[in-house]
What we know:
By secondary structure, the chain is of the alpha+beta class. The protein has helices spanning 2-18, 168-178, 284-301, 318-327, 359-372, 386-389, 406-412, 415-434, and strands at residues 32-35, 39-43, 52-57, 61-63, 66-68, 71-75, 81-85, 89-91, 99-108, 113-116, 125-129, 134-141, 144-149, 152-157, 161-163, 181-184, 189-192, 201-205, 210-217, 220-224, 230-234, 238-240, 243-244, 262-267, 305-308, 332-339, 349-353, 377-382, 395-402. 23% of the residues lie in helices and 34% in strands. The strands form 8 sheets. Strands 21-20-19-16-22-23 form a 6-stranded antiparallel β-sheet, with no helix packed on it. A 6-stranded mixed β-sheet has the order 25-24-26-29-27-28, sandwiched between helices. Strands 14-13-12-9-15 form a 5-stranded antiparallel β-sheet, with no helix packed on it. The longest helix is centred in the last third of the chain and has 20 residues, at 415-434.
Amino acid sequence: MYKKSMFALIIFTLIFSLMPAGLHGAKAAGGTIEISVSNANVRSEPSMDSSVVGKAKRNERYTILDEKYDWYQIQLPNNKKGWVAGYLVKTSSSNSQVDKRESKAATIIADRLNVRNQPSLSADIMGKLHIGEQVTATGNKGDWVRIDFHGHHGWVHEQFIRLGSQNEQEVKNQVTSRSEHAVLLYNGTNLRSEPSMESSIVARGSQGESYPVVSREGKWLKVSLPDGREAYLASWIVTVNGKAEQQKPATNQSATGLRGKTIVLDPGHGGIDRGTTGAKGTFEKYLTLQTTQLLYQKLKRSGANVILTRNADSYLSLPSRVAVSSLYEADAFISIHYDSHTESSAKGFTTYYYNGKHRKLASNVHNELDRSLPISDRGIRTGDYHVLRENSQPSILLELGYLSNPREEATVISTPYQELVSNGIYNGLNSYFQAQ
């Protein structure tokens, strides 16, 4: 009898241990996610530094096995389990219950607050609310509050809403007296684990989102995320309580040195020549064109005569690029590139020139980039590049960051970085011409 009982107990234990975790007390699966990008990396752990175990394609749906730090664990068709970052997915309804409450008046205490269609930072944004706006709170789920939003259910995090009616000025006074809040200036802003551009990205924010400031560390702000974690924001991409921080230089609006100057901008590669490919798939040829077009608009507004060697994804030979510089008798020729190396830790930006007479142009632009950019300065160097060697006009070539470095790639493709690059080159050209 004793042996039979022990045998039954062992069998029961084995069956129980093989049951899905959600069926015996572990965190239950909470709804589904839909992949919102072309190929999302599925990682072994909920971290950008962990290894990639597979890919998930756009519009594919997966059951959530677990959730941690705004990462979702899923199971791929090959039965491998892994984690997907929350900003790469859309969430659908969860099995967990919404705690209903009597409808109460509430006041928004953050400006341009995102209202989401689910209680998650990765959920779709339905619209925005502003500081002092009155809403009706109808329920909550965890740290999220459900509100009526234009006839639909919307969700905001509890740290940005207070029950009760208050006017806008009262709320602003309370927020200002209680703490500082950093408001993002750009979409796709990286929030990092440490006060460094080299640290891992823990979340991405949207323009107008507000985060309480915990402390300051140099040019970085430590902020509190809605899920309780802390992260770091670069001070030059936010406003704090409505005021700009000491930001990296913007374009010089009185740039009289540029007026009437002929500047040839050369976006590297194009067409069949895609240049280097980033660690996460960025094609250099697209990024150089994006940077150049942004710079083009700023220079045109200053009154410069700006010529592009290419303005689309088309191939152009190196001699042809030099010919454009000669044809227009360029006062400055700027070739835009992004770098690559077999060692993924390589990082930073570099300015190249060939003719000694052109070092002054290189110095002016490089110095302004050094003031503007948050990545490492690799210095000014001579470079035996065709577009420099064969060019009789003042010419430089810029390598604006390493796409082969995953963390630097994530930085250089961002809107804030592109703004800083174009501002730095703009200001460098202006100082070069003003000194003549």
